[in-house]
Amino acid sequence: MNSNLNKDFELNNKGTSNAGDTRSLARHRWYFYKEGFSPALVNKAIEESDISENDIVLDPFNGSGTVTLTAAMRGINSLGFEVNPFTSFLSQVKATNFTEKNFRKVSDLIMMNSEKGGISHLENYSTFTENNHRGKNKWLFNKDVLQAFAGGYNNLGHSNKSSKLAKLALVSAIMKNSNAKKDGKCLRYKNNWENLNYDKTSFLESLQDNLNIIEQDLENKVETKPIIKTGDSRKLVKKLDFKFKLCITSPPYLNTFDYTDIYRPELFLSGFINSSEELRSLRYKTVRSHVQVNWNKPKINDFGIHFNEVFKKISDKKDLLMHKNIPDMISAYFEDMQAIFMDLKQKADKGASLWFVVSTSAYANEHIPVDLILADIATKVGWKLKEIGVLREILKRKTRFSPDIDKLRESVIILNN
Ligand SMILES: C[S@@+](CC[C@H](N)C(=O)[O-])C[C@H]1O[C@@H](n2cnc3c(N)ncnc32)[C@H](O)[C@@H]1O
């Protein structure tokens, strides 16, 4: 075990590696993003670094924008990269100031138009609504709900700032009225979903709730507007034309979770993706942490002692693999992470720090100490390891493939330049 693994880390068991507290925080609460971490973690990293007025905080896996919003509300410059256009949009909207007058105008308009209803191109498409022709027996949205959404959405006028805010409120409202909910790696139909009877009325109530919350939060202004770019950070970090002082981030975990799949409804509803081909090409831009597409084969297969030990055991147990490409995915993941650590090192200011939040994982009944492996990789490319702070132990459902593993660990690897 690595002596830098700090189980007494001061943030251990303080809830900072999950997004629970964002449900009640101004602006963060405009859309609950289950996979996010807490602004408290970002605040801690900011307080421990000596950031001055001209410095920039970077997050190359910005997700819902917890880093950029937290920094922005404190008046600190920040830059986020995010490959998923819906989550990138979400982070931009949350970090924009709106005037109350414009907001009221647009919110009255969408309430009125949602009340009237409209036609959505997603009606009868795939599993979006009940579709008798294709014999689908489960659907994400009752037609009433999708039509009320479409009434508001089709009349947004997509150009001005307030219409983006209204679009977010609409997507949030329809997702609250979906027959399925996010459950780990997949969308799962809610218990008794056929009898939940979501309809226009329940949609309009959710929309009104969202608009009320947004209105309450508008006075919590963003002090410094962040820059947020939509794209693949494996390309974007290389192009940075400044050095950062603090990077705080949480990449996809090595858990076969595909963000483009779990956020598929939002991607289609908000018009960022319009076909399965577009979705597929977005998938290819994501970090190789899942098996949904046929990635390029990894070229590197040696990431230090912690990796080599566990990788051999997993590769030898083919029968216990949930998918034949898991070994390649594991190597490819660490290859991507190595490239990111190298690129970040090039762009780090003297004395800069990097906070990297990850979870361990399990395949073929082997626990993969992802935090220790990443610390090995980062130090190999020149970062100095300060510590690996344990954030929490996660209880894990035992599975057929890993029957003995019931715990994973979430940690923050803290590195200095
Ligand atoms: C763990 S989440 C980050 C959550 C974030 N800390 C928050 O609080 O919202 C990881 C993010 O990395 C994004 N991602 C995956 N591959 C990427 C890539 N190649 N470039 C940029 N972002 C990527 C995913 O879409 C996801 O939003």
Textual characterization of the structure:
There is one protein chain. The protein is α/β, with parallel strands linked by helices. The protein folds into two domains: about 5-90 and about 225-260 and about 320-415, Vaccinia Virus protein VP39 (Rossmann fold), CATH 3.40.50; about 100-215, no CATH class. About 35% of the residues lie in helices and about 15% in strands. It contains 14 helices and twelve strands. The chain has helices at about 40-50, 65-75, 85-95, 100-115, 145-155, 160-175, 200-215, 235, 260, 265-270, 275-285, 305-315, 325-345, 370-380, and strands at about 5, 55-60, 75-80, 180-185, 185-190, 225-230, 245-250, 350-360, 360-365, 365-370, 385-395, 405-415. It has an eight-stranded mixed sheet, sandwiched between helices. Strands 4-5 form a two-stranded antiparallel ribbon. The protein has a two-stranded antiparallel ribbon with strand order 9-10. A hairpin with a 2-residue loop joins strand 4 (about 180-185) and strand 5 (about 185-190). Helix 4 packs across helix 5, helix 6 (about 160-175) packs across helix 7 (about 200-215) and helix 13 (about 325-345) packs across helix 14 (about 370-380). The two termini are about 25 Å apart. It binds S-adenosylmethionine. S-adenosylmethionine (SAM) binds near residues 66, 82, 250 and 259. S-adenosylmethionine binds near residues 35, 63, 84 and 233.
